[in-house]
Amino acid sequence: MTTETQFTPQMTPNEMSAQDMLCKVLANSIESGAFEKAITIQVEKMIDETAKNVFRSYSDLGKALEEKLTKSFMPSLEKMGDLPSYHEFVSNRLKLAAEKFYNEKLTAVLDKELAEIMSEVPDEMTLSYLVEKLKESKSEDEPEGAISLHISERSHGQFFQIYIDEDENVLEGDCKYDLHLTERSPGYLEIIGLRIRGRKTGEQLTFGTLYGCEKLLFNLYATGGLIHLDQGEDEGDYDVSWDKY
């Protein structure tokens, strides 16, 4: 229950008109500061409401501030666009793993393989030596026989084509070994192209899959070694047959 404040009249209606009462109340209120206080409260309330309206998001100032703040953040957002994608992150990790493998594992394997290459290549490779190596590989199973050897005529003054096969009477184009050579000094040829069983070096031909004469020729090619035509440029001057009887 609300208790109302007891009001005590200060003026007598019989002595004053309503208009005089109003004027006196107003005068008393102004003198006591009540009217000033009421105005102050209303003014402060008006200012507070006005400020709230000014800073609301839908006001002109609010919209302008929102636009300015958005523009100030845009450069940062653009930089965030440069962050690596998931695909790039995975690719970089794979690259690092591959480099680690190359540095720690593959280097040791290659060093070992290169050491074997250098140790297996004689100081001077002669065509006769190569022919004997091919004959040895066949004579283990066959008491007599011959290999195939074709030496093309010199072209452009320095180029040769040599075809060799472990079997007898094999035509040039069907030979297992196809060597393209150039003369570096009289009688000494460098292999500048090599095919083994029709496969070109650098495509499917690698030293890890070769053995015997295949590996010997590849090693010679890889190291830039020379073949000496020790019996000359005529294939008939080389002993390509054997007979154990």
Summarize the structure.
This protein is an alpha+beta fold and 245 residues long.
Descriptive key words:
245 residues; two-stranded antiparallel ribbon; 9 strands; seven-stranded mixed β-sheet; 6 helices; 48% helix; alpha+beta
Q: Could you explain the architecture of this structure?
A:
It contains six helices and nine strands. The chain is an alpha+beta fold. The strands form two sheets. Strands 1, 3, 4, 5, 6, 7 and 8 form a seven-stranded mixed β-sheet that branches. A hairpin with a 2-residue loop joins strand 6 and strand 7. The longest helix has 35 residues, at 86-120. The model has no long low-confidence stretch (mean pLDDT 78).
Low-confidence stretches: none
- β content, as a range? 15-25%
Residue-averaged pLDDT: 78
SS class: alpha+beta
The count of β-strands is 9
From the spread of the alpha carbons, the general shape counts as rod-shaped
Describe the largest sheet: 7 strands, mixed
**Rounded radius of gyration (Å):** 53 Å
One letter per element, helices H and strands E, the order comes to HHHHEHEEEEEEHEE
Span of the ends, CA to CA = 140 Å
Share in helix: 40-55%
Q: Give the helix tally.
A: 6
